[in-house]
């Protein structure tokens, strides 16, 4: 093989590896990835893509085009190698030898698998993707050279898209589809009831927002920044918290988060003079409409265990922890420090009614009565104009005030009796379902 063919092949293989790696980065975006793959995608989107001049769509198309061009170039070079290994006279007289073709084909396939598939995969698994930032300038030059090709290709794709008839949009209901699959799994004996609930929780997790799983503002445990560390130490000895929010003039001014472990580094002589504000760490805020699956990823990457939830006006709405997010999937998580208290899960049965906490989600009420009618879905006939997402909010919205203990509120087929409440919120409600008109007529 001549030196120019060897040098060209080596250059093409390097470019092929980079193009395949970048093409895979864009193909993996938006998927649930392993930690190694996600680190590579994040490194590209944070450290490289913003400095590449071109937009994301153009870069993705350029990487795909470059990959195909280099594959073609490699095939051409191997053809040139095969041609140079044979003299013209034997080709004319006897034709090329079969072993030469077979060897060239094996070499070509092996190199394509190695540099187009295996090495890019190893770069995903064995690196965090930061290395490619050093190659930003060469990549920019290559993609700019390809810009006429990608521009023409984009134009052709747009023209073809205009010629295609518009397909009617179909409403997708992923929840119903998942329920159907879970029911089929139950009938086939593949899924146990606990497995079905876990799968359903994972699917519903992606649709929830921070407001649905946060600890609401009235239940937040906070300390003022002016509290001395001596007082803070005594308070933390009584409470089971490892970290608490710190506020300034009011709870709407959260200034940081204080960690109980930081008290270990404070001398007793200093504890009476220093305040909690002196040991607080920076706090992060999140809007109450943030999707919890995105929030979980962000908190994992930032290595944060707590964030303060704010409403659209910037006022504190509550706080959210990693534990809150995990409990949204697997249910309540208790450790040896948790105090035995009234359960937050519904207690009772469909016939006599359920006792539920005020924070119980309205969307889960149907689950409580499904066992009464396995064949047909339960219709609770709740008012469509209701905006509340919790049972406590539902009874307060329907009653027009914070109901007192003993009050009864009707909502569709539901009878809601307040079991416990304060002047600020409803704590516990007994939920019963009235018989349907058809059932009542039959009795």
UniProtKB/TrEMBL annotation:
One GO CC annotation: plasma membrane
Record family assignment: Belongs to the UPF0053 family.
PANTHER family associated with the record: HEMOLYSIN-RELATED, UPF0053 INNER MEMBRANE PROTEIN YFJD
Identification of the protein by name: HlyC/CorC family transporter
Signal peptide (residue range): none
InterPro entries: CBS_dom (IPR000644), CBS_dom_sf (IPR046342), FAD-bd_PCMH-like_sf (IPR036318), FAD-bd_PCMH_sub2 (IPR016169), Ion_transp-like_CBS (IPR044751), Transptr-assoc_dom (IPR005170)
Membrane topology qualifier: Multi-pass membrane protein
Molecular function in Gene Ontology: flavin adenine dinucleotide binding
Subcellular location: Cell membrane
Stored CDD domains: CBS_pair_CorC_HlyC_assoc
Transmembrane segments: 101-119, 139-163
UniProt cross-references to Pfam families, sorted A to Z: CBS (PF00571), CorC_HlyC (PF03471)
Domain called CBS: residue spans: 214-273, 279-339
SMART domains in alphabetical order: CBS, CorC_HlyC
SUPFAM superfamilies with a match to the protein in the record: CBS-domain pair, FAD-binding/transporter-associated domain-like
Domain of life, source organism: Bacteria
Sorted UniProt keywords: CBS domain, Cell membrane, Membrane, Repeat, Transmembrane, Transmembrane helix
